[in-house]
TrEMBL record:
Keywords: Disulfide bond, Signal. GO terms for biological process: proteolysis. This is Kallikrein-15-like. The keyword Chloroplast does not apply. GO terms for cellular component: secretory granule. It comes from Sparus aurata. Residues 27-250 form the Peptidase S1 domain. Residues 1-18 form the signal peptide. Pfam families: Trypsin. PROSITE patterns: TRYPSIN_DOM, TRYPSIN_HIS. The keyword Metal-binding does not apply. InterPro entries: Peptidase_S1_PA, Peptidase_S1_PA_chymotrypsin, Peptidase_S1A, Trypsin_dom, TRYPSIN_HIS. GO terms for molecular function: serine-type endopeptidase activity.
Length: 255
């Protein structure tokens, strides 16, 4: 009875039912990341501080992210979780990408300036043995991002930056649907994930897909750009690029 009375009071002061539903929007499948996890997560922002993408800190001050996130003048924010965030640092070196000019794969390495004093952050590890450790369809992996995804009318995805890093579990799928609709990515190495209660926003791209404290993927694209929970998510397969990553992160930037 109390709930009905409250709803009637809202209607009496001119608040519509749709507004009441708007007040009940929620993050789709996300929750604030536990304090002891994702210390290696970084934010990539524009020169003016607007959120572009996420990324993962590797050894030797390298960042692994998605190639489509690149923008001249972009900056990196370290210490995203659990905080406090450091002041944004501009990327001054050119990005390291995989592929030629016609077919750039959606994976990228960025080098933090050597003079940046990082807090005590443990970088994320690459898989030590992909043949044994690589997750398979129906296995659960963890994703994270700094964008809040909420449901609008007709399940329309609505995105905004989040003050807290959001984490979610997602099950891997077999990519059957996406391979027929996303031929543009056919030359990339990728795998898919789909859970009916989990979705992402563009600002989450570049973040790590993790299992057992190792990074197996990079968030790349949404199978459906407008409606939430309508299609699989695409993740770049780190195992397929592991040798390239190890080679590039050991060499000087122009090596």
């Amino acid at each position: 009875m109390g709930g009905l009375t409250s709803l009637l009071l809202l209607l009496c002061v001119g608040v519509t039912v749709s507004t009441v539903l708007d007040l009940q929007k929620r993050i789709i499948g996300g929750h604030e990341c536990p304090a002891g996890e994702r210390g290696y997560h970084v934010k990539l922002v524009t020169e003016n501080g607007a959120l572009l993408c996420g990324g993962s800190l590797l050894k030797n001050n390298w960042i692994l992210t998605a190639a489509h996130c690149w923008q001249w003048g972009m900056k990196v924010v370290v210490g995203v979780h659990p905080g406090p965030e450091l002041n944004p640092v501009m990327i001054t070196e050119p990005p390291v990408m995989y592929g030629d000019k016609k077919k750039i794969h959606d994976i990228m390495l960025l080098k933090l300036p050597d003079l940046v004093n990082l807090p005590k952050i443990t970088p994320v590890d690459l898989p030590s043995d992909c043949k044994k450790q690589k997750p398979k369809p129906l296995d659960t992996v963890k994703i994270a991002g700094s964008a809040v995804t909420t449901l609008g009318e007709d399940n329309k995805r609505e995105c905004a930056p989040s003050d807290k890093l959001q984490c979610a579990d997602i099950k891997l799928s077999d990519c059957t649907k996406l391979k027929t609709t996303h031929e543009l990515y056919s030359y990339n190495h990728w795998f898919c994930g789909e859970t009916s209660t989990v979705d992402i926003c563009p600002g989450d791209a570049g973040g790590g897909v993790v299992r057992g404290n190792m990074i197996f993927g990079v968030i790349s694209f949404m199978g459906e750009s407008e409606k939430a929970n309508a299609a699989d998510l695409g993740f770049i397969d780190v195992c397929e690029y592991k040798d390239w990553i190890k080679k590039k992160t050991k060499k000087p930037i122009f090596g």
